[in-house]
Structures are given as C-alpha cells and as structure tokens.
Design goal:
By secondary structure, this protein is an alpha/beta fold. It has a domain of 138 residues: Rossmann fold, CATH 3.40.50.300. The protein contains eight helices and nine strands. A hairpin with a 2-residue loop joins strand 5 and strand 6. The chain is globular and about 75 Å long. It starts with a strand and ends with a helix.
Length: 201
C-alpha cells in the first residue's frame, strides 16, 4: 500500500515518519527531488535528491514526475521511477506537501492519504521558530500557507494530531497495521491456515 502523508510545514511529518520506520519493519520511503538547499544532517538520496532548478525543469519537461509543486519558493517532486520501483517492495510512504497530495489523489486513487496537524496554530509557530532553519520571512510565509492548507484536511482518509509524539506515532502505526490485517491482504496466509484445518486428521 502507498501512504501519502501530508500537512502544513512544521507539523512534524518527517519526525513521525522516521519514528514509524524505527518501530515498524517492511516500509519503504519515497525520496523526493527538491531544489531547496540541504539542511544540516540531511543526506543525499535518503532525505531528498537535491537538484538544481535546471535539472528539475528538465525532469518536468520529460514528464518524469508523478507530481510536482513549488512550495515556499522551492520546487519539490515525486518521480515516477521512485514510485514504480519502491511500491513493488511493500508498503511505501510519501512525505508530500498539500499541493502534491492533491495531485496524487487523482493519480493514485488506491493510496491512503494521511493528514498531520499540530495541536494548535501557536504550537505550529513555536515549532517553526525552534527549528532555526528558516528566516523570519520564510516562517511568516509557512504560517500564512498553513492557514489555507489546514482547510484541506477533510479531503484525506485519516487525521493524525501531532501533539504528543508517541501517541501520534502509534496512530500512524495503527493505520498501517490495520491495512495489513485486511482479509484481502492476508489471503495467502489464510489459505495455508485453512489447508491445515482441512488436512488435519
């Protein structure tokens, strides 16, 4: 299953996803392309594929992206190759902005869409300032966009309120585990169990 995780900038999507991966095996991460500068601690190919605007535009022109958008002055995109390759290996998580999620809803109708929100507007502002990665102007832009983005939450399948991290991670984990327990997902296992019942003397 493909899980598209979205929400306002600073809501904690990346932290939630990292925690999910540490607690639940069998999940792949879809690495996006971006033109924004690399932040401290980020690794090429793990967090993002960092490219120039010219490289990004070439990929747009060649229709290499399943979705792309300009967010806070930088370009972000999900390549078709990334989705095609990693979705065959099990559950796949995409960390996508709200614009990108809107595009993917039409192109990946089978995916599950999860919206992450902070517990309040003041808490979001505090988190953005505490990151110390953006200028005051960029923070103001992110907060302005968040007011608009949060209105889209009702278009998603699930809502995770990221107030207390452990609880939010457990909610995200529950979403993945619930889908893994769907009967259609476990038919192969069930057939083996059913065979044992029928073949036992």
């Amino acid at each position: 299953m493909i899980y598209v995780i979205s929400g306002p900038s600073g809501c904690g999507k990346s932290t939630l996803i990292r925690e999910l991966f540490s607690r639940l095996p069998g999940i792949q991460f879809s690495v996006s392309h971006t033109t924004r500068p690399k932040r401290a601690g980020e690794v090429e190919g793990r967090d993002y594929y960092f490219v120039t605007r010219e490289e990004f535009q070439r990929m747009v022109d060649s229709q290499s992206f399943l979705e792309w958008a300009e967010v806070h002055g930088h370009l972000y995109g999900t390549s078709r190759d990334e989705i095609s390759k990693k979705s065959r290996q099990g559950d796949l998580v995409l960390d996508i902005d709200v614009q990108g999620a809107r595009q993917l809803r039409k192109k990946l109708p089978q995916a599950r869409f999860v919206f992450v929100v902070p517990p309040s507007y003041p808490e979001l502002e505090k988190r953005l300032r505490q990151r110390k990665t953006d200028s005051p102007e960029t923070i103001a832009l992110r907060l302005k966009n968040a007011r608009r983005e949060i209105e889209e939450a009702s278009n998603f399948d699930y809502l995770v309120i990221n107030g207390e991290l452990t609880q939010a991670v457990e909610e995200l984990k529950a979403i993945v585990l619930a889908h893994r327990c769907l009967f259609e997902q476990r038919q192969k296992e069930f057939k083996e169990i059913l065979w044992s019942f029928k073949s036992w003397p």
